[in-house]
Write a structure and sequence with these properties.
five-stranded antiparallel sheet; single chain; Alpha-Beta Plaits; Ribosomal Protein S5, domain 2; alpha+beta; 7 helices; elongated; 13 strands
Length: about 325
């Protein structure tokens, strides 16, 4: 390759820049060699944290977007694509807003795909804070065989993710063959909590109930469990949970105060600081920060540090959202 000229050659010497076309099975960081036994150390690319939800503008764009994004992420290792099952959004991670603007232009010019960006939704969850014992009763008669399901369930907070289901029924008040239906009814109902987000960390103990020899079936007990769950939401003090994680910010020592002040505004808790071993004059600030507060952090840190600072972030769990923040989230969700 010489400028915009392409000259065919039989071999390349050390220092030449060459191109081989129609390589269908090669990717960035692959090494080409005659023997196949040589592999250069792979280039380590920065992790992209600037995230936006991506929406195709038309149905035609939607049909082509997956293939186009797959091609772009294959070419650019600092792009990451994710189809989030919890928020039902297509997420694209990049190095900043300019990076995403270039991606949108490339998608339009090369693949004819038009997109728009939006702030990604935060995958909030819910949990209860009180122990309650509630009844769920489903009774329906419309000629012929009817429907009858009746359960007493004790709901309580749990440390385990999802649903912890136990049965302590005595005397056959609820036949064992209906227990799976009760559990399935609760699991389906937990997809939506009091504020519209999935319920988690819920313990449910089925301890009493009743049945009808003719009218009781699995659907009736599944419905009864769902009715009991709704009563639980009214009485058990549900609260919002948000994803939080470890944030490690590496900046020059002179900027540590600015970084810590900014993290306090983002509801972050500074856990400590370390000198950066491989970068003299730099300090690593360790903090716990909610994911919801970091949507614009890549660009803010870049501006604050004149491009000298960088960070790593990993979600480690869920914590209760403060009441003043929760009220705004719930109002926006409505």
């Amino acid at each position: 390759m010489k400028g915009n000229k392409q000259v065919e050659v039989d071999e390349l010497a050390c220092g030449d820049i060459g191109m081989v076309s129609k390589l269908s099975d090669t990717n960035t960081n692959d090494t080409l060699s005659a023997s196949g036994n040589i592999a250069y150390t792979a280039v380590k690319y920065a992790t992209p944290y600037y995230c936006r939800a991506m929406y195709p503008l038309t149905a035609k764009d939607e049909s082509k977007i997956s293939q186009a994004i797959a091609r772009m992420t294959e070419e650019d290792m600092t792009l990451k694509y994710e189809n989030n099952p919890e928020t039902k959004q297509q997420l694209i991670y990049a190095m900043g807003d300019m990076h995403l603007a270039i991606l949108a232009a490339n998608l339009k010019n090369r693949f004819g795909v038009n997109i728009r960006y939006d702030i990604p939704a935060i995958p909030y969850r819910e949990k209860i804070t009180k122990t309650v014992d509630v009844e769920g009763k489903h009774k329906k008669q419309n000629g012929g065989s009817g429907q009858y399901g009746h359960v007493w369930i004790k709901f309580s907070p749990s440390e385990e993710e999802g649903l912890t289901f136990t049965v302590s029924v005595v005397g056959g008040a609820v036949p064992k063959n209906f227990n799976p239906a009760v559990e399935k009814g609760l699991q389906d109902a937990m997809l939506k909590g009091a504020y519209g987000y999935p319920m988690t960390r819920l313990a449910a103990d089925l301890h009493d109930g009743s049945y009808h020899d003719v009218d009781s079936d699995e659907l009736s007990f599944k419905t009864a469990a769902s009715l009991a769950y709704k009563k639980c939401l009214e009485q058990a003090g549900p609260v919002l949970l948000e994803p939080v994680g470890n944030l490690d910010v590496t900046v020059p020592e002179s900027l540590v105060g600015d970084v810590m002040g900014d993290l306090n505004k983002r509801r972050g808790a500074v856990m400590g600081m370390d000198a950066c071993e491989n970068k003299p004059g730099y300090t690593i600030v360790h903090a716990m920060v909610p994911k919801a507060e970091l949507a614009d952090y890549p660009t803010v840190l870049r501006a604050m540090s004149q491009g000298r600072g960088y960070f790593d972030y990993e979600v480690t769990g869920y914590e209760t959202v403060p009441m003043n923040v929760a009220q705004k989230v719930i109002a926006d969700n409505k």
